[in-house]
Amino acid sequence: MTKVHLYWVKSPAIPSDELLNGIIESATDAIVAIDERHRIILYNPAAERLFGYKVEEALGQDLSLLLPEHVAEKHFSYVKEFLKTGHSPVLGKVMEGIAKRKNGKTFPIEISRSATRIDNHWIFTAIVRDVTHELEMERRLLESEKLAAVGMAASRIVHEIKNPLIAIGGLVLSLLKKETKEERRQKLELILREIKCLEKLLSDISEFAKPLKLELTETNIVALCQEALEFYEPRFEENSVKVHLIAPKDEIKVVLDEGRIKEVLFNLFQNAIEAMSTKGGGELTVEIVPEKEKVRLIVRDTGPGIPEQVLKHLFTPFFTTKKKGTGLGLSISHKIIEAHGGKIYARNYEKGAEFIIELPYHPPEAKAVES
């Protein structure tokens, strides 16, 4: 192992130890060093911010404090191997890994490790950086590219099918007007219904494929939710669904596209009605929770819940568990909420399922969002 040297221009005004300490203290990346027994012997302020432990809590502790159990065991084996052979597969490389915060949550990291010998003892140093944001940006980029490809394909499909379908529909209508035999009329009406289903599918695909433009206005989101529930009231009554609105008395102003957000809510209402139809009805609750930088809308039902394998794919284009669903309703809803700079996700709770919409009070950018 080549000995590591630190080089700097010596200055009588800045002692060497003070210079080194200053660099470590001001580093933006976490720097953690351990001794041969896996104990933490150096832990800079950036490490405090990253892991959540104060320096006095970390120093002298085993490195497993900062790592998930399986990662700590592997890391200990690397140290043990190096002390035995003088070689390690992880030293001198920038690698990806998993670390653990004080609150127990794990997060992805980029880590580079090195070893140096001081006073006949090996010191192992790691420079650690949280890459959660980078991985999320990468995921979103890949998702955008995938949706763009789907959008292009969808546009071609709509173009190729729409005109022939209109012609077929016109011919069926013409035959239906002239047909007098009831049996034949029923068959023609069945064909017409199926054509309308295909037209609805093409409409959804076209909506998903085209750029999304928002018409933003400052809106009282409490009033907006009340209006959406009132509009859907006949369908709730028809399906034996009781409705509850939990909201603050004061207005909550949010800059949004009223029509688009109502479109999302209507989609969630309809999904909830269909889910609860298996139980002959139920209860739907819309809860509005204002927070510091965003407002949360929770649409909660008392249906059977969502299977775990379905939860993973809910917002994937063309994924559906319905016999006649297009699989685009939730994808379009996801697109609308993301265009507002927000998030939408689903989860189960003890009595059913709930969809959570998080909207910033002011969207980061008011512009068209491409598929």
* Radius of gyration of CA atoms, rounded to a whole number: 30 Å
* CATH architecture verdict of the largest domain: 2-Layer Sandwich
Uncertain parts: 1-8, 366-371
CATH-assigned homologous superfamily of the largest domain: Histidine kinase-like ATPase, C-terminal domain
- Provide mean pLDDT, rounded: 84
Largest beta sheet, briefly? 5 strands, antiparallel
Indicate the overall shape.
Answer: elongated
| Distance, first to last CA | 53 Å
The topology string of helices and strands comes to HEEHHHEEEHHEHHEEHEEHHEE
- How large is the share of residues in beta strands? 15-25%
CATH class assignment of the largest domain:
Alpha Beta
Give the number of domains: 3
Count of helical stretches: 11
Name the helicity range.
40-55%
- Kindly report the CATH topology of the largest domain: Heat Shock Protein 90
Judged by helices, strands and strand pairing, the structural class is alpha+beta
Give an overview of the whole structure.
A hairpin with a 5-residue loop joins β3 and β4 (106-118). The protein is elongated and about 105 Å long. It has helices at residues 16-26, 45-51, 55-58, 69-85, 132-178, 182-209, 221-231, 233-238, 258-276, 308-311, 329-339; strands at 30-34, 40-43, 94-100, 106-118, 121-130, 217-220, 241-246, 253-256, 282-290, 294-301, 343-349, 352-360. The protein contains 11 helices and 12 strands. The longest helix has 47 residues, at 132-178. The protein is α+β, with helices and mostly antiparallel strands and 371 residues long. It has a 5-stranded antiparallel sheet. Strands 7-9-10-12-11 form a 5-stranded mixed sheet. A two-stranded antiparallel sheet has the order 6-8. The chain has 3 domains: 16-130, Beta-Lactamase (2-Layer Sandwich); 135-209; 217-360, Heat Shock Protein 90 (2-Layer Sandwich), CATH 3.30.565.
